[in-house]
Design a protein that fits this description.
This is Protein yippee-like. It holds the Pfam family Yippee-Mis18. One of its GO terms (molecular function) is metal ion binding. The chain has helices spanning about 1-25, 140-150; strands at about 40, 50, 55-60, 65-70, 75-85, 90-100, 105-110, 125, 130-135. By secondary structure, it is of the alpha+beta class. It has a domain at about 40-135: Metal Binding Protein, Guanine Nucleotide Exchange Factor, Chain A (Beta Complex), CATH 2.170.150.20.
């Protein structure tokens, strides 16, 4: 009985080690957005994050400066939900991170206590410090330069 008990423990420990090794080797599958669309990508690893047409607002503030509110994002994971008092009141939020490089990017609004803030529920904040523009921005940026020179 003692031998089978020890053998059972050894098997459990071996299974834990094997699972830890598998977790390290786990592949991350990326979603690639259409390259003909203007997109935003992770500034750290260039994984696609969102299409420009999913942008709701550029008028948000993150912990590291300006932030954008998106309707939907890709290649992003969510941490646990927690209560936070933000500039616009109390919310239940979950930090979001890049699935590819694991950098924290911003947060997801899970629940808004104020009626006027309900539109944020299920939406995502990504801080500008963690994203870059990709694909198709040249025309818009060139137009902006021409207008500023005249």
């Amino acid at each position: 009985a003692i031998l089978s008990s020890l053998h059972g423990r050894r098997t459990t420990n071996a299974m834990r080690v094997e699972k830890a090794q598998l977790d390290k080797e786990k592949k991350t599958f990326q979603t690639y957005l259409d390259t003909s669309d203007r997109t935003y990508s992770c500034a750290h690893c260039r994984a696609n994050l969102a299409n420009h047409d999913q942008l709701i607002s550029k008028s948000f503030q993150g912990s590291q400066g300006k932030a954008y509110l998106f309707n939907s994002v890709v290649n992003v994971g969510c941490g646990p939900s927690e209560e936070r008092v933000l500039l616009t009141g109390q919310h239940t939020v979950a930090d979001i991170y890049c699935d590819c490089c694991k950098t924290t990017l911003g947060w997801k609004y899970e629940y808004a206590y104020e009626l006027s803030q309900k539109y944020k529920e299920g939406k995502y904040i990504i801080e500008l410090a963690h994203m870059v523009k990709d694909n198709g921005w040249e025309k818009e940026d060139a137009g902006r330069k021409r207008r500023s020179l005249s």
